[in-house]
Amino acid sequence: MLSPRFDRQWRTPTAARGYLLVWIFLTLGLLGISADVLAHAVAQGDKGYIQEITGVNLIAFMYLGAKHMVTGYDHLLFLLGVIFFLYRMQHIAIYVSLFALGHSATMLLGVYFNVGINSYLIDAIIGLSVVYKALDNLGAYQRWFGFQPNTKAATLIFGFFHGFGLSTKIIEYDISPDGLLPNLLAFNVGVEIGQLIALAMILIVMSFWRKTDGFFRHAYTANVAMMSAGFLLIGYQLTGYFIA
């Protein structure tokens, strides 16, 4: 539920100025970022290595799974949004488990049955998940529509889409069918390890930030920045889809 203190920040002129400054900052910053950085694709070295090996390679796939999650800024932005206002560990565990269940299911099924989705479109949907969660944290749905979406169901559903994003990247590896299932399971274990590492780092930072007097004031700006990043990711991916 949205904090009353945070709700007041949404209404203030200071917040409006912060919103504008965030948009300007992100726009100028992203103009200087290369397309390769925004793409979050498979590293060429990793892709070449996986294409050359055959059989069961559990450690290699665990490493790739962990690396993909830790460096996956779009996944991490969504995860940050999910836990932003969660204070109790049991609540965090429930939401993170729903997200893990969703992305694990579609990642494994997508790769095993070779069900691919255009990488630009699925990454645009992942960008949409970031926008959704930032707006949810800002209380936008209650304010605009008088309705609060089921946050647990939304986390699970967007987990499905994030899993398809992962499966799309794995299919790009063009991995050998020899040892496919154990390698996929190892990749998934690596993703979960990477997610736990990233989550631990985020929670450490958040625990210190929440103790500061300016947390709710800066929380507004942070969620606006998150929403803006999501919109920019959507725009970038859709542009790539139409010009590719």
Nutshell version of this structure?
This protein is mostly helical. The protein contains twelve helices and no strands. The chain is 81% helix and 0% strand.
Describe the structure.
The protein is mainly alpha-helical. It has twelve helices and no strands. The protein has helices at residues 4-11, 13-31, 35-39, 44-52, 58-70, 73-83, 89-112, 119-137, 140-145, 151-173, 180-210, 215-243. α6 (73-83) packs across α11 and α8 (119-137) runs antiparallel to α10 (151-173). The longest helix has 31 residues, at 180-210. The chain is globular. 33% of the residues are buried.
Write the layout of secondary structure elements.
Elements: H1 4-11, H2 13-31, H3 35-39, H4 44-52, H5 58-70, H6 73-83, H7 89-112, H8 119-137, H9 140-145, H10 151-173, H11 180-210, H12 215-243
Helix pairs in contact: 1-12, 2-12, 5-11, 6-8, 6-11, 7-10, 7-11, 8-10, 8-12
The succession of helices and strands, N to C, reads HHHHHHHHHHHH
Number of strands: 0
Mean pLDDT: 81
Main β-sheet description = none
Distance between the termini: 42 Å
| Inertia-based shape | globular
Could you list the spans in which at least 5 consecutive residues all have pLDDT below 50? Answer: 31-37
Strand content: under 5%
Helix content: over 70%
Radius of gyration: 19 Å
In terms of quaternary structure, what is this? single chain
Secondary-structure-derived class: mainly alpha
Our count of helices gives 12
